[in-house]
Amino acid sequence: MPAPRPGNPVRGSRTGRPIMAALDLLGRRWALRVLWELRDGPLSFRPLQDACGISPSVLNTRIGELRAAGIVALGDSGYTLTPDGLSLLESLQPLLAWAEAWAGKAEDGKAKDRG
């Protein structure tokens, strides 16, 4: 399956609206994990693979898709987030905060169910 591109049909959208293309890309197995592992700086292939705990073929595919999207680049020190990749991680911070609050509510609900 080719890397999602805005304007082209993607999973869940025949129109390829940019948000749908982005969600298709980020929803692929291990894509977010690769971005997360690159948050602190460049990693070469093997350390990135070890950090993610995925097969080399899947990592190679994800890196190719993320590079095609302009989110990850290969530099002298290994794979790194581009300015767009850093911006993407920054834009996910509100979702992270929401997810943590949601998880807290789920835990509160479990405690009430047990009570």
Structure description:
- This protein has helices at 18-26, 31-37, 45-52, 56-68, 83-91, 93-114, and strands at residues 72-75, 78-81.
- The longest helix has 22 residues, at 93-114.
- A hairpin with a 2-residue loop joins strand 1 and strand 2 (78-81).
- It is mainly α and 115 residues long.
- The chain has one domain (18-114): Arc Repressor Mutant, subunit A (Orthogonal Bundle).
Oligomeric assembly: single chain
What is the makeup of the main sheet? 2 strands, antiparallel
SSE order in H/E notation?
Answer: HHHHEEHH
Number of strands: 2
**Level-1 CATH class name:** Mainly Alpha
Q: Strand pairing plus helix content: what structural class?
A: mainly alpha
> Beta-strand level of the residues, as a percent range?
5-15%
Instruction: Detail the poorly predicted runs.
Output: none
The residue-averaged pLDDT reads 90
For the largest beta sheet, what order do the strands appear in spatially? 1-2
Name of the CATH superfamily:
Winged helix-like DNA-binding domain superfamily/Winged helix DNA-binding domain
Cα(first) to Cα(last) distance is 48 Å
- Going by CATH, the architecture would be Orthogonal Bundle
- How many helices? The count is 6
CATH-assigned fold name: Arc Repressor Mutant, subunit A
- Round the Cα radius of gyration to an integer and report it: 17 Å
Characterize the overall form: globular
How many structurally independent domains?
Answer: 1
- Binned, the helix content reads 55-70%
